[in-house]
């Protein structure tokens, strides 16, 4: 859908062009563009301010039918995120205007002080992600563009020609994750979601294994089974395996896959409960990541482990006060059936550790409301005892604008997770610091492996959407995890 092109604007006709403009400095050096920008200034009083947009048709002297100028504001405030927002806006504007294709004039990388690869990656991300809408159920949803070209020099097309393909592979994973998260829970019961993930993953060449309830019982996934006990919709464990010939590292990604979190017997209040369809966003992000990885083929074995369950109240549901035996053999007292995410993750982490003996485990989960309290809806929490891993995750998130903030894991808070009758309790005895005590619970099952937990409860779903993400699942984590893995291998 997207490619880099070096078209001569004075020779070739372009039907629909978008030109980004800064208010205080030129960011283009082609004569044709500079003269078009000058015309926009004269005809439309267009200055390039942050929110300015101007569309002109058939400007004299140019072979362009429709041109939209989009203001980027001040040059020194431009970063990669501004570029994503710019192309995201450009695509939405044009798609909503029933356009089917678009040519985007890329700024000169050196004028922005960014590396060409990063510049084109960000422009492509805004285009591909901004073009996506969730249109399964609503008949009036507008379709996106069919094609977008990014206009730059022949040299840069040569140097960065593979960027669109690579970025599209990662964005495809992001979009899959978004769609899975936005899909309502009646259409993504654990078995259905497992099938949907399997079908997308198999196409890319990943090895897919799905364990059903019988196999989970045989293998003693006690914590996972305790969570799913109340639901008629039986659990699944999906394993996605990228196993290349050359393996420098083995990395396991674990994703929380609660297809609906009613809270169980500790039923959640009504307000906002519908958002708990998104409680499988960790699993969706991990599945999306593995699907991109299968295309990009890094020299690492990457395994996605996805426990999929539904948390429901019923006559067969696990009760508060029950004591269960987890996969690891540790007994867990159920202090609260709504603290279900840590239970399924505990089993998945312990299983991954035992079977794959990975160098690193990263889990991603919509784990706690407390994390949303602490960091809000745009920043995820990172919990790990491995400072280097924390730095890598935070740095990757800064680059992709999937922002992460490292949170503490104080040893003395373990006290709060003690149970009088079992090895550990899933509920803290303190009202406070719930994101931390949840992470400490998980760490008890990660044992000595290098492990990090990313709490995405705040960032996984957006009711309103943003410049390159429609309302619904955000796909948070797919670009982040791809970058973390890429950086681990350099
Ligand atoms: N799925 C929720 C966490 C959540 C909250 C995700 C808000 C997205 C948005 C999780 O299973 C949960 O219910 N956590 C409880 C834990 C508590 C019972 C210890 C919470 O955060 O209140
Ligand atoms: Mg819950
Ligand atoms: Zn949950």
Architecture overview:
With 490 residues, the chain is of the alpha/beta class. Helix content is 37%, strand content 22%. The chain has 15 helices and 20 strands. The model has no long low-confidence stretch (mean pLDDT 98). It has two domains: 2-152, Leucine Aminopeptidase, subunit E, domain 1; 170-488, Zn peptidases (Aminopeptidase, 3-Layer(aba) Sandwich), CATH 3.40.630. Strands 7, 8, 9, 10, 11, 14, 15, 16 and 18 form a nine-stranded mixed β-sheet that branches. A six-stranded mixed β-sheet has the order 1-6-5-2-4-3, with helices on both faces. A three-stranded mixed β-sheet has the order 12-13-17, with helices on one face. Helix 6 (163-182) runs antiparallel to helix 10 and helix 9 runs antiparallel to helix 11. The chain binds ligand BES, magnesium ion (MG) and zinc ion. Ligand BES binds at residues 261, 279, 336, 338-341, 366-370, 372, 427, 434, 457.
Can I get a quick summary?
The chain is an alpha/beta fold and 490 residues long.
Task: Give the SSE layout.
Blueprint: E1 2-5, E2 14-22, H1 31-44, E3 53-57, E4 64-73, H2 80-96, E5 101-105, H3 109-112, H4 116-130, E6 147-151, H5 154-160, H6 163-182, H7 190-203, E7 207-211, H8 213-218, H9 222-228, E8 236-242, E9 249-255, E10 257-261, H10 281-296, E11 300-311, E12 323-325, E13 331-333, H11 341-356, E14 360-365, H12 369-375, E15 380-384, H13 387-400, E16 404-406, E17 424-425, H14 434-446, E18 450-455, E19 461-462, E20 472-473, H15 478-488
Parallel strand pairs: 1-6, 2-4, 2-5, 5-6, 9-11, 9-14, 10-11, 13-17, 14-18, 15-16
Antiparallel strand pairs: 3-4, 7-8, 8-11, 12-13, 15-18, 19-20
Helix pairs in contact: 2-4, 4-6, 6-10, 9-11, 10-15, 11-14, 13-15
The chain binds ligand BES, magnesium ion and zinc ion.
Ligand BES is lined by residues 261, 279, 336, 338-341, 366-370, 372, 427, 434, 457.
């Amino acid at each position: 859908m997207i490619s880099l092109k070096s078209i001569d604007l004075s020779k070739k006709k372009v039907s629909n062009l978008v030109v980004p403009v800064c208010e205080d400095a030129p960011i283009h050096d082609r004569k044709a563009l500079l003269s078009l920008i000058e015309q926009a200034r004269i005809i439309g009083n267009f200055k390039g301010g942050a929110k300015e947009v101007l569309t002109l048709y058939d400007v004299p002297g140019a072979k362009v039918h429709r041109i939209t100028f989009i203001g980027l504001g001040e040059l020194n405030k431009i970063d990669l995120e501004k570029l994503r927002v710019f192309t995201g806006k450009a695509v939405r504007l044009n798609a909503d205007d029933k356009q089917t294709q678009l040519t985007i004039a890329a700024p000169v990388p050196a004028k922005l002080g960014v590396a060409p690869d990063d510049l084109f990656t960000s422009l492509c991300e805004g285009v591909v992600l901004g073009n996506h809408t969730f249109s399964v159920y609503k008949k009036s949803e507008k379709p996106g563009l069919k094609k977008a070209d990014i206009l730059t020099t022949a040299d840069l097309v040569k140097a960065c020609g593979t960027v669109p393909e690579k970025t599209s592979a990662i964005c495809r994973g992001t979009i899959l994750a978004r769609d899975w998260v936005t899909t309502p829970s009646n259409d993504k019961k654990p078995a259905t979601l497992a099938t949907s993930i399997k079908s997308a993953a198999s196409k890319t060449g990943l090895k897919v294994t799905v364990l059903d309830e019988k196999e989970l019982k045989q293998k003693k996934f006690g914590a996972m089974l305790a969570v799913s006990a109340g639901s008629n919709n039986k659990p699944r464990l999906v394993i996605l395996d990228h196993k290349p010939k050359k393996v420098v590292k083995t990395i396991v990604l674990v994703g929380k896959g609660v297809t609906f979190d009613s809270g169980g017997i500790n039923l959640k209040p009504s307000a906002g409960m519908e958002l708990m369809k998104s409680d499988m966003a960790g699993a969706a992000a991990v599945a999306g990541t593995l699907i991109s990885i299968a295309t990009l083929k890094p020299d690492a074995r990457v395994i996605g482990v996805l426990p999929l369950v539904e948390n429901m109240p019923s006559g067969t549901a696990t009760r508060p006060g029950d004591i269960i035996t987890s996969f690891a053999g540790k007994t867990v007292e159920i202090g609260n059936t709504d603290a279900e995410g840590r239970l399924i993750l505990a089993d998945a982490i312990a299983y991954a550790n035992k079977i794959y003996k990975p160098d690193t485990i990263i889990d991603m989960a919509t784990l706690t409301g407390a994390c949303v309290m602490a960091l809000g809806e745009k920043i995820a929490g990172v919990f790990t005892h491995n400072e280097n891993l924390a730095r890598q995750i935070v740095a990757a998130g800064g680059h992709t604008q999937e922002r992460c903030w490292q949170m503490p894991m104080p040893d003395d808070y373990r006290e709060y997770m003690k149970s009088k009758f079992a090895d550990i309790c899933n509920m803290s005895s303190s009202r406070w610091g719930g994101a931390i005590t949840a992470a400490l619970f998980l760490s008890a099952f990660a044992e000595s492996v290098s492990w990090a937990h990313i709490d995405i409860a705040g960032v996984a779903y957006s009711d309103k959407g943003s410049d390159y993400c429609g309302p619904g699942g955000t796909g948070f984590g797919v670009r982040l995890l791809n970058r973390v893995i890429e950086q681990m291998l350099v």
